Amino acid sequence: MSEAPRDAGQGPPLPRLTTGNPQLDDILGGGFPANSINILMGEPGSGKTLLAERLLFANADEGGRPLLFLTTLSEPLDKVVRYLQQFDFYDESKLGSAILYDSIGEELVEAGVSMLVPRIKEAILQYKPKVIVIDSFKAIHDLSTSVPEMRRMLYELAGLLTAYETTTFLVGEYSAEDIARFPEFAVADGMVELARNKLGTRDERFLRVLKLRGSSYQEGLHAFRITSGGLEVFTRLVSPVEAPSYDALTQRVRTGVEGLDQMLSGGLFRGRSTFLLGPTGSGKTTLSLQFVMEGIRQGETCLYVSFEENPTQLDFQIRSLGLDPAEARSQGLHFYYASPVELQIDSLVTRIFTTVREKKISRVVVDSVGDLMMSASDPQRLHGYLYALAQHFAVRGVTSLFTYETLPSGTALDARVSALSDNILLLGIELEGSRARRTVRVVKARGFQHDLDVHELRITSQGVEVGKR
Amino acid sequence: MKPGDEPKTVNGVEGPAASSRPGPPPPAGSPARHHGVLILVVERDPHIRELEAHFLDEAGYEVEFAKDGHAALEQARRLLPEIVITEILVPKLDGLALCRQLKGDPKTRSMSVLVFSILAASGRAAEAGADAFLLKPLAEHRLVETVKALMNRRRQLEGRSGNE
After folding, report:
1. Which stretches of chain A score pLDDT less than 70?
2. What does each C-alpha distance from A468 to A260, A282, A454, A465 come to in angstroms?
3. Residue B127 belongs to a domain with what CATH number?
4. Of A4, A345, B122, B131, which one has the fewest beta carbons inside 10 Å?
């Protein structure tokens, strides 16, 4: 899963052009290499024009060289500028001076594609632009009378744009098949694809760097949202490059349930991940809350991620354990609640990871993984995320507890999911005639001795208690 | 200009067309001409030739072109430009060899040589005796500033030798 950064080779580092988005810059290894020719591709509405516009406003500098946005035939210039004004980054003072919008659609229709190179050359001589955006470049193909004409024009255009110190973005509604078909892809130094995946009532948006000559970049699909500030990008979480230091992970962490600590011969190991399985009503949330409250008692900073119970409901549960939720918050208990209907795993995982890093969290509960699974359009992707998350926690010495709801009848857990965790605790409800009782069993405890027996689990006013079988 | 065009002076190269498009107005008035300052540009790439012609002309210099090293040597000896701007990768005689030959010939050694290349070879350019090095792509401000600095140095040297 881990990706070694690809070496960009010898030579001086390339100067970079910011996209105006720190996460996207990070994905691109610091931004687009300056003086390159790049293609921004994706279906209509995928956010490619917005990406280009955000970049223009981020690089517009009064008194410096201007940035040029040329529209062709896909959208009237007025429309592009009208929509642009809806965004936070729009700055009217930049327009007409630092950023120049112009339309070349009519000239293209009248004179054909051969006018493009002299027109761009004229623009270079007149404006000396630092950046040139042509949107839509793909639409120019529709005006070409022959393939050789288009190829010749592109050869000339690439020569011109390479000769002059400017960074170019060719924006177009290209699909994957176009990459082998259209000659602009052969001359492009960089390619970024934006895609939208329609999922019932909501959309998932992803971007992916397909090529970035002379630069390393973060591969794979990165989720994003369109906001009033432009694209909000959630960098795909990959496993940490450094391995967890197992020597440092010998410290025991008490679970907050004494009987359970005894079954685990002293508690869980710091930095390890535990899956807490059980049917509804078996005590998963109560035990999880005890786990974080024990952390607070030990002076640790804790995070409780919940997709089912909102903060008010969790406060109620904490109070029912005889504890004060406000005090717990002031002592370092953080809650993160996301409604299941808004779940998108990329943004969730990014937020969990960012919170853990920024708040220096040492105990985490994710309640529950099943909700995450329901939100994931791609189970493989969720699996990769959980693995990467558990690895990052291990490296940082964060002890994690993931709850997972099973059916009352069984313990069927995806074998891959169980392989993700260091430990598995199984809660159950056993029926004896008309009497039901709760149970707990340690199914797996990586690397240490533990009690194999089924123990009785009671929920009292102090929370979960574990007794002898 | 198309690839393969004969070397030509900037006279006749079209400047930016008058336009009602948005943007900063063109600089008021024409720049002061550096009368008699001739620059020989040795360049194979037609786009760079045209851009260099435009920006150097805009800055007030006279420009002649050569598209290979042999032609450049011949033109340098005949036209005696003050500055030679050369790419390293030019046919027949490469830019660094051209620089060495110019610097080794009493007739041409006083010319300032600016190596302007796609190759990051400032060290090799200095070894060949070049007075300055610039890496492509072309940025007009860097090019023009470098040419101005070379001219200032020449004028200072001329002043000094004139006083002796």
Report:
1. 1-12, 200-202, 244-249, 340-343, 375-377, 408-418, 468-469
2. 10, 17, 8, 10
3. 3.40.50.2300
4. A4
